Amino acid sequence: ASLGRYQPFLLDGVTGSGKTEVYIALIEAVLARGEQALLLVPEIGLAPQTADRLRARLGARIEVLHSNLAEGERARAWLRARAGSAQVILGTRSAIFTPLPKAGLIIVDEEHDGAYKQQEGFRYHARDLALVRARQLGVPVLLGSGTPSLESLANVAAGRYHPLLLRARPGAVHAPEVTIVDMRAKRLDHGLSPELLAAVAETVARGEQALVFRNRRGYAPVLACDGCGWHADCPRCERPLTLHAAWHRLVCHHCDFRQRLPTVCPACGVTALRPLGQGTERIEEALARRFPAVPVLRVDRETTRRRDAFETLLGRLREDTGPAILVGTQMLAKGHDLPNLTLAAIAGVDEGLLSTDFRATERLAQLVVQVAGRAGRAAKPGRVLLQTRQPQHPLLRQLLAAGYAAAATDLLAERRAAALPPYGVQALLRADARERSTLDAFLAAAAAAVPPSPEVHIAGPMPAPMALRGGRHRGQLLLESATRKALHALLPAWQRALAALPGARGVRHAIDVDPVDLY
């Protein structure tokens, strides 16, 4: 009934409840009107799976747009969309700019996902632009998620979005059983508890697949000396270098600085160098040693560099009915449907409980629910393990007892009390320079140049949480307001003033409105 006019909807559906079926039904209705549909997904890895489902069900001309395509392919798809011959356009965040002369519907899948925010150059949030474009085109926009962002939930509460709820999994598919594993006083095998290893053993013994999630690439995040306490740091970032054992390299995950693996400690000359902590590479090694007869597949940026590698791996796992163990990062947390996967284990959740970022708890709650959603999507029951040293943490307990919706309600109440987004609006000036004194002078002048407004509060200048990156000193200035109108009223004049500051030479700076992180 809403086709042909602007109306935002939030499809809040538990993982595995059939959100994609809703998308397909709506796209069918749009195609029957002779119109185009745009479907956004957060990651390139989700595009092939979704495109295959759409082609199998719709029999329509579907064009895919993302950065992994050859330039010629992207150009041809864009031209067909502009000509109106492409009926369905499927793409990642940049596809929001695709011309739609016969627009009928815009869908944003996994609308909560941070990948929709473009962090460099021209900064934008594809979900928010989807709403702007839908309003301009006069078409409905559907935001879908099993773990909606707090911004979208606040918009539902304010009456700006119309809520649609999918609260049940179809047929015999039951929600997975979730268990917290206390890591304290346990003998761990490369960061894996006896309970986790036993659960993996039971899963593969039944001929099923298990996922061990660790959102940290490499072998170990720190290489340290037992003799003197030295540890390998990046000279350009002053952060620990990550050990990548397969490459025999130490790599900075912030600026990509690399160096050969030392055989002796550079500080004291002894050979007592030891990796500390666990990355996906180390967990893969530990599981392969523990389960030599079972395929152990690592899915992270290193193993999926080759074009179509991720798509090939997922296709193999969907078709293979035998046991397997997946070790992966964030790439595996999203939307993938693996019918024989019945165990999902998160090897470490504590980073999200101890972060300085006010959004960390929201992201952790979403991550736990999304990873849990990979398990037990077919008729077989699923199981989820959460390893933590804080088993009594209120957020974890609430997620287990009452689910994501209850946790989100409490997180929204905290945000409201602190006047943080979505109940406040932010703009972050990020700046960096070769010299700290140059940066400090620029930020002081930038703070003085903010047009006065009783409704806008200035926090800073202050160093960025990561104060040195790639050899450049980094700092920031945060503007906060209770209303978007008050903040936006002063931003154009401030931007012009920043460009004219005498200290701007040698300083790279950018204003990020609605920043998704403060780093």
Q: How would you sum up this structure, described in words?
A:
With 519 residues, the protein is α/β, with parallel strands linked by helices. The two termini are 43 Å apart. Strand 13 (242-244) and strand 14 form a beta hairpin. It has a 7-stranded parallel beta sheet with strand order 3-4-2-5-8-1-9, with helices on both faces. The chain has a 6-stranded parallel beta sheet with strand order 10-20-19-11-18-17, sandwiched between helices. The model has no long low-confidence stretch (mean pLDDT 85). The protein has helices spanning 19-32, 47-58, 71-83, 126-137, 150-157, 194-205, 280-290, 309-319, 350-353, 360-372, 394-402, 404-418, 436-448, 484-500, and strands at residues 7-13, 36-40, 62-65, 88-91, 103-109, 117-118, 124-125, 140-145, 162-166, 177-182, 209-213, 222-225, 242-244, 249-251, 258-260, 273-276, 296-299, 324-328, 341-346, 383-388, 425-433, 456-469, 472-481, 507-513. 32% of the residues lie in helices and 25% in strands.
Task: Name the descriptors.
single chain; 519 residues; alpha/beta; 7-stranded parallel beta sheet; 6-stranded parallel beta sheet; 24 strands; 32% helix; globular
